[in-house]
């Protein structure tokens, strides 16, 4: 009886370790490459956007805090950030004059990263409230008030500041 429970326990531990190892391998070998791709797309699309600062300050303290966090917390933070960026671009993009293919490629890369990062963290963990609040303010105070090239330019400037790689 105990032998069966022990083997079940060992099997579960090994399976969960493989999942974490797969995640670590993906981050080590693929995440940086994809990040370089989307940063290159940002450069291509954002050539003449704006030098105006966003009316919502960048959450520098959140990023400093996450530097000292555990690996899984860092991965969750990355996942949450990418998820929020994708949501920002989910709305009305008709007034933006960027190359549609580059914009689609940018979003596809972020979605690939999000999908892979989702497999790296526990689904039970809640997103960072301050990060969510930052993106909500950014959406409300920048994008919803001024759906224009300048407002999306502010978002791209924010993405470049974050340099999520």
TrEMBL record:
The Gene Ontology biological process annotation of the record reads: defense response to virus; immune response
Entry's localization field: Secreted
Signal peptide range: 1-23
Q: Which GO terms describe its molecular function?
A: cytokine activity; cytokine receptor binding
- Record's keyword terms, sorted: Antiviral defense, Cytokine, Disulfide bond, Secreted, Signal
What InterPro entries would the database entry show? Answer: 4_helix_cytokine-like_core (IPR009079), Interferon_alpha/beta/delta (IPR000471)
Q: Name the protein family.
A: Belongs to the alpha/beta interferon family.
Name of this chain's protein: Interferon a3-like
Please name the source species.
Salmo trutta
